[in-house]
Amino acid sequence: MAGGEGPLRALLRAANALLQQRRYRAALAVIKGFRNGAVYGAKIRAPHALVMTFLFKSGSLREKLKAIAQATYAHSRNLAYFVFTYKGLMAAQSRLQGKKIPFHAFLAACIGGWLVFGENNPINSQIIMYLLSRILFGLSRLAVEKGYIPQPKQDPFPLVAALVWGTVLWLFEYHRETLQPSLQSSMTYLYEDSEVWHDLSDFLLYNKRTDSK
């Protein structure tokens, strides 16, 4: 056993020495970015897919578990590919121009977004909508910070909350098809299923009865 540990320790020392080499830092950052994207994507998607699948989707246990695994894999893979592409393009641009400039981030992310998230599917759609809401908040704060719009005298968040909820419920009630399917399912559960019951069992214990009474 001792003889087997020698080569392994030597390999670990060599790997650790390689990780300390500054000239390989950009390439190694791309590899670790791929790793972090895969791990983070799985951590984010798995619990979300678990909850949404068991709450709103029908089918056997095997079919539900398969759907969860597929959604988790797709999110993890896409995020890993995107981080790999983005960091690789950032390193290439910086090397070509000799320095990093703000436009590099925009261009690298645009290319990565087109290549990795360009397909219109439920996973990509959810990710883009998640980012879009945060972009709008970020751009609003940046506009105030740069003086493009005046600093509000009162916190605008209550007005934003009112407009967001007013708009989304109006869309749900009168233009439901424009909303994303998972949001439609959530709102149906909250605002329509709560109007239907037959007895105490599906009033308090269950959302819908499973028998044929």
Automatic annotation (TrEMBL):
- Organism superkingdom: Eukaryota
| Pfam families, sorted | Tim17
Q: Name one GO cellular component term.
A: peroxisomal membrane
Q: Which InterPro entries match?
A: Pmp4
Supply the PANTHER family for this chain: PEROXISOMAL MEMBRANE PROTEIN 4
Protein name, UniProt field: PXMP4 protein
- What organism does the record attribute this protein to? Piprites chloris (Wing-barred manakin)
Give the encoding gene's name: Pxmp4
